[in-house]
Design goal:
Two copies of one chain form a homodimer. Chain A has 436 residues and is an alpha+beta fold. In chain A, 18% of the residues lie in helices and 25% in strands. Chain A has eleven helices and 27 strands. In chain A, the strands form seven sheets. In chain A, strands 6, 7, 8, 13, 14, 16, 17 and 22 form an eight-stranded mixed sheet that branches. In chain A, strands 9, 20, 21, 25, 26 and 27 form a six-stranded mixed sheet that branches. A five-stranded antiparallel sheet of chain A has the order 4-3-2-1-5. In chain A, α2 packs across α4. The N and C termini of chain A lie far apart (50 Å).
């Protein structure tokens, strides 16, 4: 687990003025990685770090780095971060230190200002070749709510408090923030219908999640001890696990969600490294005394004391009318990643316990992050309680699930006493109508 | 759908004598693709076609090809077939014709004999970068049997006859025939146990399947019409979807199989192209009159008349003792791919109906291929009826599920009046004990 060091010092300022602005997601203490190029150019996509409202081209900065930092920067010229992710925590830490020194006040501003691209001028890409995407379901509030809606007589299944439950999902359909998502079609069979029909999804939903990028993998057939788990984690993004509730309801028994999930997953373009998150470590969620203790392979003192991450999550929605009228997006849910029932380390360790191998760039979704009250729900399934509790947007438009033209904006940020606030940038997408 | 042409002529012989042997899987009418190198060498893995007991190096043969065949062969020097898969059916067909002409009697035997490697001297690789692996469940006999075992009061779920049910599975853990598979550990909670324990799987099973390799993909958000579906299919292999039944039983509700499946999938090294399979087309399974007709997007005259593939499937098991004593493997199940409830085209079309994108090299498993009688079951779950019907191997050893040291061998082959018999080669693996 990365330790606090001088790159986290909240007093550090950058020569990139926007990085010192109050409320920026990207101060010099953050330095998240993404893949970018100048919009409209034919440049090769390559790695950058976000700094204020700018992006520093890591390859271009490499000439100013030495030793392990320069070696690590040499892995950042590719159009995906997989090789850098595979390099492991010493390489990541060396490059972070190097980039932090370059971007601080007193760094080589003149030499590097040509290596900056404004984020507003950049096109961002899915930052890794994502070999496999696993989606967990590690939030007890969401699991309990979804269970109460779908199985009123049997809301929380007996395995939930023993297993960090997950399903395999689809890696081909990842898109980066800003790319619209088309409403899927699928077989729908409402309980009242005799037979299913192929129709556009009528219950399109978001799920507010953290995405966890794997760094070095494990060999097929080898497990990962819980205290080694985070050595395999490169960093986190914000992830919207779009969900077609009506398609899912008809298809998902007995083999799990398929078309309900596989038409798109939207991610924030920036990956905040585990080292950048070090100031925001917290204890794992304290389980009620009645709950079972995790099995030994999922337990450790370190995980219990520091396995949590205090990330504030938000989901906002803006309808086409709201955007036309200049009404700001409506905050529909605000929740905390530290309230997950299972920690990142428990998810990673459980994932590998049977010998399944991770590869660098694989992504694990956390599952919907919901709190205990409706203003903290991370999905419309919960907020509208499966369409039984319609609500109004600030425009007066009624919603249960998403309408065409709605934009869903997800955000994550961290703040703590004695640390600089850092954020993840937006994870947003507009819903396009289904094909005729 | 590829048509019969002169490459299918059963009278064709090859100058590679072993390709003319009765019972060979690889006559000149087959020409399946794999990725190989000479065993123990540092050669770059590259594409070859199986011919008799030899492999022809496609790149080395390229100098003898012209036009579209030469262009296609130029895609075969890579260590994976993805670029060739992406090239589409005209390229595939051109190369097949070219290689068929080169390998026939009268072809340039002297010039090409140096481009042959004996299969016994070759190391084979997973032949594609498999972006995503989807496993279907498209055999009604298997679904009914598994349902009767797991849900006696509710064996076949209401969606089964409407949806070609599938789940996302794991692409990282594919291995090629010959690579051993380690028995996984996982959480087990037999019905009689109060709490789960982490233990080695006690109900390790195989599933006899066909693997379908995708050729050209579809754009995210676009569907695939049923009569276009096979334009997206490169070819088929034999696939063993290893299944840890006891791990799966505790974990799989509500999000589907995860650790029950993700520690390994074994494939035959050879991909038999859809064009090679053209002589073995058959009608789709005739549904009983009481069954629903497939929805319009899953129906077409062409699919009904020619959507089936008459592939004979076999699964054999050999224990360590049998191998030590020179006892041949025991045939435990023989079934027919033409008995699938859903066709390949229906699986592909359904997969894309919500806009989920395929990429070249993606794999879809068919689901376990079982017939109606125990000698045609494609899994031990069915054959031992969840361990309630133990059986003996020829060595006298009793089995319900797999023991350490057991080798599972799967085979597929096609024969039809007026066509040369073709086969898939072996898909085999030995079970290693779980880690201590």
């Amino acid at each position: 687990m990365p330790q606090l060091n001088e790159t986290h010092d909240p007093k550090l300022k950058s020569w990139v003025a926007s990085a010192n602005a109050s409320g920026t997601d990207f101060p010099v203490q953050n330095l998240p990685y993404g893949i970018f190029r100048k919009r409209g150019s034919n440049e090769a996509p390559r790695a950058g770090v976000a700094i204020g409202d700018q992006i520093l081209d890591v390859s271009a900065a490499a000439a100013h780095l030495n030793g392990a930092a320069a070696d690590a920067a040499a892995l950042c010229g590719a159009p995906v971060l997989n090789d850098f992710m595979a390099a492991g925590s010493e390489a990541w830490s060396a490059l972070r230190k190097g980039l932090s020194e370059l971007l601080r006040e007193g760094g080589p501003a003149d030499a590097l200002s040509g290596a900056l691209t404004a984020q507003s001028d950049a096109e961002m890409f899915v930052p890794a070749n994502i070999g496999d995407f696993t989606d967990f379901w590690a939030n007890l509030n969401h699991a309990s709510n979804a269970g109460a809606i779908n199985r009123p007589d049997n809301p929380l299944l007996p395995n939930y408090k023993w297993i960090p439950v997950a399903y395999h999902s689809r890696s081909s359909s990842f898109t980066v923030s800003g790319v619209p998502v088309k409403r899927p079609k699928g077989q729908l069979k409402p309980p009242t219908a005799e037979v299913p029909e192929l129709k556009p999804c009528g219950r399109l939903d978001y799920e507010l999640e953290i995405g966890i990028y794997l760094g070095p993998g494990n060999e097929l057939g080898s497990a990962i001890a819980i205290d080694d788990a985070e050595d395999h984690v490169f960093g986190c993004c914000v992830l919207n696990d779009w969900s077609a509730r009506d398609i899912q309801a008809w298809e998902y028994v007995p083999l799990g969600p398929f078309h309900g999930k596989n038409y798109g997953t939207t991610i924030s373009p920036w990956i905040v490294t585990m080292e950048a998150l070090a100031p925001f470590r917290t204890a794992a969620l304290k389980r009620p005394d009645d709950d079972p203790k995790p099995l030994p392979y999922l337990s450790s003192k370190s995980n219990e004391e520091n396995g949590g991450l205090d990330i504030q999550m938000e989901v906002l929605v803006s309808s086409q009318k709201m955007r036309d009228d200049g009404v700001p997006p409506a905050l529909l849910g605000a929740s905390k990643f530290k309230d997950m029932y299972w920690t990142v380390a428990q998810m990673i360790t459980h994932h590998a316990v049977g010998g399944c191998n991770f590869r660098p760039g694989d992504v694990c979704g956390s599952g919907t992050i919901s709190g205990e009250t409706p203003d903290s729900y991370g999905s419309l399934l919960e907020l509208s309680w499966a369409a039984t509790r319609p609500f109004n947007l600030p425009s007066g438009e009624e919603r249960t699930f998403l309408a065409d033209g709605d934009e869903v904006i997800m955000r994550g940020y961290c703040q703590a006493e004695g640390a600089a606030r850092i954020g993840f940038g937006d994870c947003s997408a507009v819903i396009l109508p289904a094909d005729k």
